[in-house]
Amino acid sequence: MATLQTGTGTVLGPEERLARRRLILRDALSLVTLFFITVGLFLLTWLLYRSFTDHERELGLRWKTRGEMALKAGHPEQAIDALRSALAYVPSRDTEIELATALAAAGKTQEATIYFTTLWESAPGDGNINLQLAQLYARQGKEALALRHYQLALDGTWQENGFDRRRDVRLEMAQYLLSRHENASARTQLLIAASNAPNDPAIKLQIAGLLEQASDPGDALTIDRSVADARNAPIAALEGAGRNAFSLGMYRVASEYLGRALSGPQAAVLPDKEKMANRDMLDTSLHVLLLYPSLNLPPRSRAERILSIRKIARQRLTDCTGTATSAPPALAGIVSRWAQVPSTLTVSQLEQQPDLEQTILQLAYDTETATAESCGAPSGDDALLLRIAHNPNAVDQT
């Protein structure tokens, strides 16, 4: 069919318009088909990739779980292999931390240190990483670095239970300081921990025990008594209070708590050695109290005890100097002072002279101290008097 020409342009005939329409339709259909093929290929590729990544993730999780279980079971070597496999499939910061922990547990100190140092550089405020580094440096004897990272762990962030974790870090730091014989620094950390400790007997007793190791029986006794005076007090608190009071020369307090410890139902489970030690301290405390001239005694009873102490101390001096015509230089002053005390005294006479009572007591204490240095450790009543002489005012404290 012919194409008509007009003044305004070319006019297509019916057949040409139909052919053109079919061409457009065919091209559109081809484009649509190509589009759906592309979408199909994309979906297929995406599904295959998703399946592959899911499989990788599943394998990574499986190896990570195996590693965690091995680490928890105390098999760090197995944990290292499993966690490395997990990282190969799914890189993860948590898995890297677990791998570094496994390396440390397996004794691979240098490798673990490098691993944790790399992790620390990207998160210097992470409390757990700083704690791990502190433990590693402590193991290597690098005290300055260990203490630095313990402090960073105290100041750092924790994912959960930050308050409890910081307390645990502080106690661990104190134990490390004790192992280095830095008792004063350890005591500082322990007193901070004690001031923030919850009302938990186990935690309080742990702190008290560490304070005792830090040669601070006074603060340890305060904590032990706070637990021991509560209802249904654990026997460890009674023992700790008695032991620390005994160490401080507070024999009345020691006898109270040791007596409760040994007479309570929990005493049956104590090891024989521990029970015997408690019994020895209790017996010594009771004997000291029977000898000690307490101000709470009636005047006559106090005077009788002072005369008894006078006799014990003078006999100790005689035994120490022996038959020598002159006393050793270290004891000459003591002998001279005894010469100024009346050689015969009755209870009634002494009862009326409180100043003389004090003079005799002080001289007796000085005698036991001096003879212990010159003639060796005493025994019997002399040993009890020497205990009193170390801190006379503490004996009767409550």
Short overview:
With 398 residues, the protein is mainly α.
Break the fold down into its secondary structure elements and pairings.
Blueprint: E1 4-6, E2 9-11, H1 14-72, H2 76-89, H3 93-105, H4 109-122, H5 127-139, H6 143-155, H7 162-179, H8 183-196, H9 201-213, H10 217-228, H11 235-247, H12 251-263, H13 272-291, H14 299-321, H15 329-339, H16 347-351, H17 354-375, H18 380-390
Antiparallel strand pairs: 1-2
Radius of gyration: 42 Å
Q: What is the structural class?
A: mainly alpha
Question: Helical proportion?
Answer: over 70%
CATH fold node name of the largest domain: Serine Threonine Protein Phosphatase 5, Tetratricopeptide repeat
CATH homologous superfamily heading of the largest domain: Tetratricopeptide repeat domain
Silhouette: rod-shaped
Low-confidence stretches: none
How are helices and strands ordered from N to C? Answer: EEHHHHHHHHHHHHHHHHHH
Strand order of the main beta sheet, please? 1-2
Compute the number of structural domains: 3
Taking the sheet with the most strands, its summary is: 2 strands, antiparallel
Query: Mind telling me which CATH architecture of the largest domain this is?
Result: Alpha Horseshoe
Alpha carbon gap, first and last residue:
129 Å
Number of strands: 2
Oligomer: single chain
Please work out how many helical segments DSSP would assign. 18
- Which strand-content bin applies to the residues? under 5%
Class of the largest domain in CATH? Mainly Alpha
